[in-house]
Amino acid sequence: MDPSVFSAWMEILARVPSSVMWFQEYFGHEGAITNLRNEAEAHGINDNRLIFSSLDSWIDHTYRKRIADLILDTPLKNGHTTILDALCAGVPVITLEGDQMHNRASSSALNALDLHDLTVNSFKEYVEVAVYLATHKHVLQKLRKNVEDNRLHYPLFDTAKYATKFEEAIKVAWQVKKSRLLTGKPTREMHIFPSIQSSTVMPRRFPVLSAKEDSNAEDEYIVRVQNALDTQQPIRLHIGGHIKSPDWWIVDANDGDIVDFVMYISNLYAFRDNSVDTIYSSHVLEHCTHGFGHELEHTLREWHRVLRPGGQLLVSVPNLFALATLFTNESIPHQHRVWIMNVIYGGQIDQYDLHKVGFDETILVAYLSQAGFCDFTRHDDFGLFNDSSTLVVYDTPISLNIQARACK
């Protein structure tokens, strides 16, 4: 699961008011449930529409899936045996086909059951198909009958035929190798060619346009980034920025008038590897966990991924050493120490405004080094934006400003 597919799920719930989202409780579900409920509320969806249930014993779990009307597959990594279980139970599955084995497994299974209607090519199409089926019960019932019928007559669940074909393939492979050995010739190499996504549009049996026919189906973020790369424009990201600048794109988890990309700082999915010239982040990194979930490590690795070799990271965080020194100074008035406390722990005006880690220079550099950054320089002021990185309290700079390079 990732933020993109979760947002798609929440859009489906918003457009189908009678719907709920059903999750199974796997290991570690306690923390996950809290996070999912919070994210649902952040998307404007009442968290009681997320239903959680404990796992059944292995002998019952396939039958239990028949309760569901639709299974919504995860594009980042498809369900594999779980999707086969759902299809075996007769439940339709919607999947967004990717370009690698792990995110094409479900489309392969659907194709083997002649259910290509349920393979989509964009998040837009993913949502539209789910909403159409959820709001047209007669179509969904007919589709479900197709799933139930096809599983008995198509090759996906014909294990005897599969075993026979697999045995034949193994024998042929051995005969090829054996013949080369007997003739003293070197063994031939095996070449696996990358998959080519078909541009052919299969006719869908209900009226939802395929993304392959839809000129507006491409992710607008990815298109914007690609246009910048095509025209060789430098890409500079201002993470969590509050000041608009024509030279910088603002990335924030919360939407706003000046926000260019609404996405989590740990998942800059629209940006390719080695595509970003500079990342600027002022008093954002402290919002990541350093223990549970390891958000801090994931975020820094993600920033390192998108930066070009030698790309610059300009990061500012609250200087915990300076703030702690000020907080313990009893000569500072109470109301000022309350403000300092808020800087340490976050203003907590929403679910994102919580500080979960503290830094001094040694701690910050250690995390940056671990993520692949090098060549660290400390600055009093980056000279870019009038923001928290320039704050001085009682003649004490409270921001730790570090410049680093993405070493690759």
TrEMBL record:
Pfam families: Glyco_transf_41, Methyltransf_11. Pathway: Protein modification; protein glycosylation. GO terms for molecular function: protein O-acetylglucosaminyltransferase activity; S-adenosylmethionine-dependent methyltransferase activity. Keywords: Repeat, TPR repeat, Transferase. Residues 263-314 form the Methyltransferase type domain. Residues 1-165 form the O-GlcNAc transferase C-terminal domain. This is DNA mismatch repair protein Msh2. It comes from Phytophthora nicotianae (Potato buckeye rot agent).
